[in-house]
Specification:
The protein is α+β, with helices and mostly antiparallel strands. The protein has three helices and ten strands; from the N terminus they run αβββββββαβββα. The protein folds into two domains: about 35 residues, no CATH class; about 130 residues, Nucleoside Triphosphate Pyrophosphohydrolase, CATH 3.90.79.10. The chain binds zinc ion.
Length: about 180
């Protein structure tokens, strides 16, 4: 369901919200406005020494059982770098060092019947230390070779686009090849 329809009551006073033009709902009791804005998320591309990419299997909806890069929602006051380290630690119990921004992708995240608009920041990170262990939102992990990524079973279009952009940048031949 579109959030403009799903958000029925004012977060401040509980009065019914009235949809306005654009991405805003108004409360005519306390005069507060509720905006429908995208939520920032991160997605992290981690390679092993063989150049394979680490994916996790999603333990929960949406897309339960599908592959994904490790990542999640950025918390209030958290830097992108810190959110990357936190999410990777939570899902895989390893420490990484954020490295390079690949791109920022608009996407959606269906949660409890409501469409949440997201803005996914895809970045690379280097492995620092730890033993990879799937936990939290991840039920399994696996390294995939760049030519065998399971694109048809990768959960989010923003992640697929980010991985494709990353691959096209790394697979370009250099002049000495
Ligand atoms: Zn109100």
């Amino acid at each position: 369901m579109n959030p403009k329809k799903a958000y029925k009551y004012c977060f401040s006073c509980g009065h019914a919200l009235v949809a306005q033009k654009g991405n805003v709902l108004a409360c005519f009791s306390c005069s507060r406005h509720t905006y429908i804005n995208p939520f920032p998320t991160n997605g992290v591309i981690i390679e092993n020494k063989k150049g394979e990419i680490l994916l996790v299997r999603r333990a929960f909806a949406p897309f339960r059982g599908w592959w994904d890069v490790p990542g999640g929602f950025i918390q209030p006051r958290e830097s992108i770098e810190r959110s990357i380290k936190r999410e990777v630690k939570e899902e895989l119990n390893i420490t990484v060092s954020p490295k390079k921004l690949i791109g920022i992708y608009t996407d959606t995240y269906l949660f409890e019947g409501v469409i949440n608009y997201t803005l996914c920041i895809i970045a690379t990170a280097d492995f620092v230390d730890g033993v990879i262990t799937a936990a939290d939102d991840a039920s399994e992990w696996k390294f995939f070779s760049k030519t065998k990524l399971p694109f048809k079973r990768i959960a989010f279009k923003g992640v697929r686009k980010g991985l494709a952009d990353y691959l096209s940048s790394t697979l370009l031949p250099n002049f000495s090849a």
